[in-house]
């Protein structure tokens, strides 16, 4: 490894960084096999440097059977041969560092793939063996152990238990998987598991990786003692504040991260991390404190309806919360798990997104223009806030969800395992369109692993590059201005109409978002950027303007 892959510098670089999420299989295919790959990511370094992001975060690119889009990891310290090699990875790191961008990788500690060598060993070993203790195996209930140990559902439905088959063909023990059966949960009370993940973090840190995104960070520790409780649901509204849930956000989970912190801090600059932890907001600082992971995703705006009052409340709360925890806030509108926000904002507020997907995006009708306007306004608002912003690939093009993917093209275990009740997340994972035409719009030369709709051409990088008022060019201008305007991590609210969110940063950078449909008077100041053309000197509905005073 060349030493040039390491990027020195300010150890607080992450506090207000803009991080671009790359979903590797859908970013850029360099070898025409229909799957995005590591060389594809390297080939787009100029694109991302010109976009103006500070870092990229790579969703899993590790060896995987893709039972859950790569979140089923068969080997934590290698590159999936379908996506490249470790040498390709080093080359990619060097290219991004050379252009001054940092790199985050995803760590998936709650579960491995069932193809992981440890799980294969566990299956071959006897009940009660050391090999089985790395996972969560239990005897079944019923006369012959034919019933699962309990009725906990999996996130992808229906049960979170799968029965194994013994070497002699007889039915064996059951193992726990909070996600797909191909994703067995680790036992985080096992020392080997604890040590192995530290090894993984060192492995990638030694290769120059700057940061880690921690998948389902709140699920690692479990209370598996009997009697098993009933678990009504898995979203954070069901998680109590006292750390007493049997599966999520248990108090001792953060002990794991204290251990990781020692590893992070043994590097110069210290490696950083961001937790994906769907916990009640009050509990988020446990994951984002400087003694644990340092930062945690704040998904609040992602689930906040388009309302000035609600946005303001959420921003106020989160800026405060981040300050209390010693972290900086993160802001997120989209990622690989949710319906793209250009679509969410173009649907009626109360629309049921799962039903909308099942109707192939027909009912209710999507108002594309409105969705686009709001998405443009929203990103400008986010980028003006103190803290860091996470951008999901394709949102800079204003991409909508591909809601009409045919059932036989879908790959998401949510669809495959839940008897077609939920279409799942493939609609936001369709490969990126780089060119206006071609079978896969420049994604690659050999088609794409998910069908790309005809309208993608108009939203391709090539199409938007040449349109001054495109969403891509808005992102570029906003990111460039943001870089120049960065200031201390605070904001002051400026009095405004109830349908307007207006705040100022300490250096006189103002952001004004009009959430209503009617134009509003522009506050004083020099207009530096606007998400929509001003009309007679007024700020139109569903738009944001930045002013300098
Ligand atoms: C996280 C990932 C999601 C994945 C799940 C299981 O929520 O973001 O894509 O399915 O964890 O690993």
Automatic annotation (TrEMBL):
Stored CDD domains: AmyAc_OligoGlu_TS
Domain Glycosyl hydrolase family 13 catalytic: 21-429
Keywords, comma-separated and alphabetical: Glycoprotein
InterPro entries: GH, GH13_cat_dom, O16G_dom_2
Pfam families recorded: Alpha-amylase
Molecular-function GO terms, alphabetical: alpha-amylase activity
One record GO biological process: oligosaccharide catabolic process
Protein name: Unannotated protein
Organism in which the protein naturally occurs: freshwater metagenome
